[in-house]
Fold each of these.
Amino acid sequence: MLIVDRVDKSYRKGGFFSRERQQVLKNISFHYEQGECLGIIGESGCGKSTLGRLLLGIEKPESGSILLKGKKAGGNRAGSGSISAVFQDYTSSINPYFTVEQAIMESLGIGRDRSSRRDNHAKVDRLLKHVGLDPHCRTKYPHELSGGQIQRVCIARAVATEAPCILLDEAISSLDSSVQMQVLELLKRLKEIDKLGYIFITHDIQAAAFICDRIMIMRNGQIEEIVSTTQLMDVQSPYAKKMLQMVIS
Amino acid sequence: MKRIGSLLQDRLALLSLFIITSTLLAGIFAPWIAPNDPEEVHMELRFASASWEYLLGNDHLGRCVLSRLIYGIRPSVLGVLAVLAISVGIGTAIGFIAGYFKGKLDALLMRICDIMLSFPGYVMTLGIIGILGVGLQHILLAFVLMKWSWFARIIRTSVMQYADAEYVKFSKTLGIGSLRIIWKHIVPVTVPVIAVTSSSAFSSMVLQLSGYSFLGLGVQAPHAEWGMMLNEAREVMFSRPELLLAPGITTILFVSAVHFFTDALQVALDPKLGSSGRKKQRKGRFQTANLQGSEVA
Ligand SMILES: Nc1ncnc2c1ncn2[C@@H]1O[C@H](COP(=O)(O)OP(=O)(O)OP(=O)(O)O)[C@@H](O)[C@H]1O
Ligand SMILES: [Mg+2]
């Protein structure tokens, strides 16, 4: 479904007029099949979020290509066939001036001709229930919700786009561990019910192992190794070995 | 709409709105509302105190103070308001383009703003008057030239703060166009900033305009203007202090009304402040004070 081929990305370093560029992603290539859950792990600053932004089409790769069902990512790709997203920082992931309902409506109104208001109203109710929220939440503003509730709303909003794949960029990292577990369970359930696939960016190997089918280990903007979760114990590269050792001990 | 409704429940906001609109209307319909000709001299009525014909008394040339006050709205309030609208409009457009799209365009626009801001404002204004001649419209022109870059800078900063927010990123992943994102997500959060900066700029411009009128560079002598009325009254400050009161109180009242109204607007627009009552409203006022401080600096 998603084919990433030799992608590079660099950012300008220092002031606006400086020539120096910092290479953030180097020669990234991998495949992603519909419905699978791919974990992307790596230490802070290794370019995971940057890769995520490229996959979402918010930014363009400098060289190489990202093909989504044969089409370039980042074009006018409203509607299904695209990737939706849940981000890390729940304090800014919903517009503070929007109610929960408006936030979800935003992604319902895309790529479809205007369905009737009542229709959407019922849909919002269904989505809220789907992610384990009380339908009364619909009129609340984000500052009136807890972090876990906001992340649930964000998941509902991502599910509402009916995209087959959701990219979660550290979506659970800023939650406390019991809420993390609840959200992970929710994601697992949605994966089974809706046949959703995830690209799960995190630096928490345990969370990744819990939910992912395959795990991609990144280091300094390069792919170190891609392993399936069941074979996580016999990784090849020394860096990945060291990383796992640290988690286990 | 719901939020505008909560604004109308705030008594102070309503009173301010009333003062603002009635001042504007009085300025627009000055010839019909003013009881007398503001420029008619009655030497026999010099410094006359209030009477039924001249409700606020007469000034040092026996002119009707009330009528001069009403006619003074035109340059003092309407003129400055027009200037404000134009410079805020230009500043907003540039600020949004620079702050949202960033990159080369941003760098170019901000260097232009820097160049504009590096000219000392008063000297520029004097220069423009020197070239184009004395007159209200030239001062207003100078205000536009000097102020837009200042607005552009402030608005750009607050746009940038929100342009990277995760909800903007999410809208981008939905494939929503930039204009729509700006309109739905960035305009609402920057409106309070724009409102507060404009209201503080407004009061400072009213005062500056009075200053130039005092120097004889702005509104010309027979015409009425609040600042000029104050300066005329200043000469008899100790013998006839009441002449200072009329323009002084009007200016203070109007400027305060503008401040209170923008504060209330800010509170009404922000769901975080709106739901939890009025005690947080002080915060809005504090921010206003801050912004004013930064403008002076
Ligand atoms: N817009 C940008 N401009 C300049 N440099 C950037 C930009 N975005 C990211 N970088 C740089 O790219 C590198 C990778 O950043 P990225 O956010 O992808 O890391 P990450 O793997 O997501 O880290 P974390 O786990 O902390 O989220 C960092 O060194 C960062 O400084
Ligand atoms: Mg990151």
Amino acid sequence: MSSPTLVSPPTPAITTAVPLTKKILTADHPTWCPGCGDFAVLASFYRVLEKLQYPHEKIVTFAGIGCSSRFPYFVNTHGGHYIHGRALPFAAGISLGNDDLHVFVFGGDGDGFSIGGNHLVHTARKNVNLTYVIMDNSVYGLTKKQTSPTSPIGFKTKTDPTGAIDQPINPMRTLLNTGATFVARSHATQVNHMVEMMTRAAKHPGFSVVEILSECVEFYAGAFDSSIPRKGGTWSLIQEKKNDGTPEDADRHDVTDEVAAFKLAGQAWPGSFGVFYENNVRKTKNVLEAELVTKARERTKNATDLQLLQATFAKMR
Amino acid sequence: MVSPNTPETPGGAAAPSAAPRSIHDVVIRLAGNSQDGIQSVGGFLARLAGRSDQDVMTYMTIPSTISGGPSIFQVRMGTGDILSSGDRADMLVAFYQHSYDAHISSLRPGGVLLYDSDHVTPVEGDNRFTQIAVPITSGTVEAVGGAGKDKGKNIYILGLIARVFDLDVQKLAALIKERFGGKNEDIVRNAMLAFDAGYAWPQNNLHDLFYRFEAIDLATRASGRPQVTMDGNQALAYGLLAAGVRHGAGYPITPWSSIMETLRTELPKYGGLFVQCEDEIAAISTAIGFSYTGHLAITGSAGPGLSLKMEALGWATMAEMPLIVVNVQRGGPSTGMPTNVEQSDLLQAIYGSHGDTPRVVLSPKNVEDCFYIAMDACRIARTYSTPVIILSDMALASRIEAFDEPDFPKLMVDPKADLSDRGADFKPYPLDAITRHAPPGSKIGSGKYPTVTGLEHDELGHPTGSSKLHTQMTAKRREKIKKLGASLPSPELNGDSSGEVLLVTWGSTWGPALEALKRINTAGVTGGHLHLRHIHPLPDGLDDIFNRYRKIVVAEINDEGLYGFGQLAMMLRARYANPAIVSVTKTDGLTFKISEIVAGVARHIESAQLDASLGVAQPSALAKN
Ligand SMILES: Cc1ncc(C[n+]2csc(CCOP(=O)(O)OP(=O)(O)O)c2C)c(N)n1
Ligand code: SF4
Ligand SMILES: [Mg+2]
């Protein structure tokens, strides 16, 4: 968050007015298995950054631990590879520490819904301004095929050799429940759709989250075929309300309607894709904290740090 | 009501029979229930001492129940340095029978018992003490009306103590007005009525129990700055503010919570913020996130919470991110004794977490030092790009001391983040230099932006499985901490520079050890006292110091463990392989008494004089000749 005593002077010297291209944004060669869905998510993310053209040095790509969480090494921006499940609270520190930044967090279903589940709830409810992309392959990829919180009942893994028996979570319902102010769902086989969802998420003021079904070809091949038309599945796009007064519009989805979003989240597998919910009214934590600063500094009449400390100590004589 | 030593009160005619006697210091213990406001009496006395250039130290127990229940506050005030809150009390004020029963044994022989004659019946004919029946309840009711049964007794007693010790009434009245002034007029008026009633009572009821503190040698207060009075958690929080910390995150736990409460309230005034997180893991993660943006940040907790932070601490070591972690120690393991003192998190702080994680661990010696250790921790974190753990404890967190106001204009550190451009040759993890983190927002001349990482990495931050690089990078992380160790000042050494025994302490055991040293020296034993503020890395040159003494006795509040040594003693033995290093430990959840340290030393050295001195009870300063 920017604040009176913390604003840094503009940094003029290096002029990188060149537009951000995929070439510039490309870093290490991905270490993923050939055919892994995560490649397409990465390619889409380059396109998102090409579209948005944020100043290069102000983009942060961050992640926890997992195959998907290797993401930051493959993107040439400031970034980090943190510990398993805790990337969100770290990223909250980044976002609140410098409100000028554009913070993107990537991770897997285990990272986000299992070990990091509680952090997801609290970062979302606080509406910290950042974008979170969950690359859901319904399995633990990096640790080589254990059951994940989104593995369907019956899926055979090394930890459930006779098939998973525990009820999986419903990601969309879970995300809506957290109080996230932008919730969308996409699919790694749909590059244009991913680009659109991630772009809208990035532009959303507040905590935006996109769940992307991204196949692990190594340990859960075919997991998402039922939503891939060329494999005989159905690709069901959410039709958003246009408020154009046409009769068709009445049946379209109102993204500001939380109850309607929950209804969509309750659809039978494989469900629908698109924006489930968007709330542009709730203030971000970034704004709320900045307001606290403004109020406090009004009360203290913009006293300097030195004056503040001296005044406090004078009261303790 | 009847007490052998209660002076007669013949129609209010008696006047004090003697001039006030001069004393160096006094330990007053107030024992009642938590709702009696005895904490605030202690607070008033402590702040008065601060304003009078007297030294002061307090000791407080908070009952584990939220409200009600027994509670005590002990204040030691006097002239010159007050190093500990005192083994035993010179004066006990007992509000209830249970207060008397539980605390009479804490009174020194010759000490003064003031008891509420409306509630307490002391043992008849107990000649060890001067026992004085004071109508605390009825006197207060008389002064302020029926409400005085529950409220105002504390202020009545404050008035009485002010008279007995010839305290500055004007300053006390000013403190009372400051404290209650924000509320309505009636409250201030009632408080002053109770105060005056208490102040008036001794005149006609106490013959010769009047004292005055020795005059202060003002030359010893050379700073020219006034004294301030606060607890260790406040001092620590303000030290962080002076050191330019503007960001933090935490999760509540006793006795750390008041630091985060202070920072949450204060930081917005300074343009910063403190985030209350969902747990300690999130808290340290958010704090490292702040540090990543170039703002050195603080997180903190007490023992169990520090355990939760361990994985993230490992990351901060690997990624070489600066960070301040405060751990206010309490009795453990687990929830243990949450409102008691213990120094049992030392090894957790130094060696907790996974892998080879060279740590920086500091510990403040008193309340004032909480301020300066916070500043030192920030300097180290920034210079060496490393997490720094501050080990405070329950005793420092909750007790109030007076100290000279810091020289703020000299000390203030600019909080600005360094987002300047980095050159084309920028490397996040250079092998030949200490890491200088480039926060997001800073442009990198090469156009190659760094990934900070917990995976072993090369100089540019790329993950690596290279054995050679892991060896080199492990050495890089180790060597910078060794470099810090070599730069540290020689630790404080008191008393004889060689001799029979060297007392070694860390943390809040500093004060009692210094007093213990005096007693040891008085008994004719040569000895010194070495106090460690920088515990890891250790400063250079300790082996030379150790070699000058026959026994090195490490006193600390933790268990002797499976091998018979406390946590610091074990580390020092491992480091110096010196069999003269021995250990004095205890696990009663209380700060060291001076006599316990002296007895501990006596167990390790052969000295008939020291053994003999143990049997001699220290008489009260208030004893009649
Ligand atoms: C504290 C901790 N526990 C366990 C692990 C081991 N681990 C690494 S990644 C992972 C699960 C990865 O699954 P997911 O988040 O779904 O990511 P994916 O690899 O499938 O993309 C586990 C259990 C770890 N690194 N840290
Ligand atoms: S194991 Fe699965 S998730 Fe990991 S890289 Fe390979 S295909 Fe992708
Ligand atoms: Mg997964």
